[in-house]
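Can't paste images in this forum, so I'm doing it all in text. The chain is below; anyone willing to post the predicted structure tokens underneath?
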Amino acid sequence: QLQVVESGGGLVQPGGSLRLSCEYSGFTSDYLASAWFRQAPGKEREPVSCITGSGSKTNLADSVKGRFTISRDHNKKAVYLQMEHLKPEDTGVYYCGVRVGVYHCREYDDPSSFSWGQGTQVTVSS
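Text version of the structure:
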């Protein structure tokens, strides 16, 4: 059974930081590409970041470059999103996805290739 579970969301003031965690299990490999997407109220889910199965390459959306960092720990079967200098426009539900049978991040903006968790709410507000 495929399982993806996010945690670490919460309420933070503008300029603050949060670290999201994603734990996965049940996949045929522990070296699958993984990504974070987010969805703001009234908007479509959008890609934020992707990391390859090996962890050697990462992609970041232009809106978060220089502020967010994606990483992974194969021993813990976990993927992380470190978010710094948060802005109100970063508010939304953040979803972690594991790319079934795929090790790279090419065309990762297509959400249909991922198995998703339930999401964790991030609210940036004063």
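The chain has a mean pLDDT of 95. The first strand starts at residue 3 and ends at 7.
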